[in-house]
Amino acid sequence: MKRVVVLSGAGISAESGIKTFRDAGGLWEEHDIMEVASYEGWKKNPELVIRFYNARRKQLFEVEPNKAHLDLVKLEKKYHVDIVTQNVDDLHERAGSTHILHLHGELKKVRSTLDEKLIYELSKENCEIQIGDTCEKGSQLRPHIVWFGESVPMIAEAVKLTELCDIFIVIGTSLNVYPAASLLNYTPYNAQKYIIDPHDTPVFGVKNLKKIMTKATEGVAIVVEELLKSA
Ligand code: OAD
């Protein structure tokens, strides 16, 4: 079976109603990125950080995967598909994709500030944490998110998958954030690459690249149909 790697970003979840970060009206226009998404921000004002992620998590329980998430699952009939996502939502999981690697963490989970292996999943009914909520060892819980200034432990695995792929599909990411943005550089020279994004993502010198400048729901349908026909 040929191998497909999908690198998804906030744009794939936009049509589910989750705001992107850097578009007009995006989250980083409303919030100071370093205040709510960095380790320094957490040290300075953990309450603000917890409130920010509580609100995002609450919203996540109210949205659904869209056609783009669902269409990607169809590829699994004929390809081995690995989804490498920068998104902290669980919409690829809920759509039914089976191999998903979260580069930037998972919104529904929280973890111990003492022992990063102590990870807890929150439910719709109990979807918030507060200052004073602790792990079983007694230390404060924090969002299970990779913040700016923190390492990205899953990147090594993502690079391995990317180096092995036959087809690489980038969906809805501005490719502003590293190391995720560097994954395109690890694709095999001859692999077929696609970028699906309504805006022209500035990528140069990549061979076999097809840009599909549409929303994810339209672009993913086009690529999935093409790949299923040619499998
Ligand atoms: P960005 O907000 O930087 O980029 C979103 C991309 O989605 C842009 O290129 C848009 O053109 C595109 N887009 C918007 N609507 C779309 C649609 N309906 N269909 C397809 N594409 C659409 O989001 P990311 O690149 O995902 O990290 O951001 C990367 C990281 O920066 C995030 O994971 C997050 C953020 O800071 C952390 O918080 C650690």
General description of the model:
By secondary structure, the chain is an alpha/beta fold. It folds into 2 domains: 1-17 and 65-104 and 151-231, Rossmann fold (3-Layer(aba) Sandwich), CATH 3.40.50.1220; 19-62 and 106-145, SIR2/SIRT2 'Small Domain'. It contains 9 helices and 9 strands. The chain has helices at 10-14, 27-30, 33-36, 39-44, 46-60, 67-74, 91-95, 155-163, 216-230; strands at 3-8, 80-85, 100-102, 105-112, 119-121, 141-145, 167-171, 192-196, 209-212. It has a 6-stranded parallel beta sheet, sandwiched between helices. Helix 6 (67-74) runs parallel beside helix 9. The chain is globular, with a radius of gyration of 18 Å. The termini are close together. The relative contact order is 0.19. The mean pLDDT is 97.
Give the overall average pLDDT: 97
Could you name the ranges where pLDDT drops below 50 across 5 or more consecutive residues?
A: none
Known CATH architecture of the largest domain: 3-Layer(aba) Sandwich
What is the fourth-level CATH superfamily of the largest domain? Answer: TPP-binding domain
Taking all Cα atoms into account, the compactness measure Rg is 18 Å
| Helix and strand run | EHHHHHHEHEEEEHEEEH
- The CATH topology of the largest domain turns out to be Rossmann fold
Overall body shape? globular
The neighbouring-strand order within the major sheet is 3-2-1-7-8-9
Biggest sheet character: 6 strands, parallel
> How far from one another are the termini?
9 Å
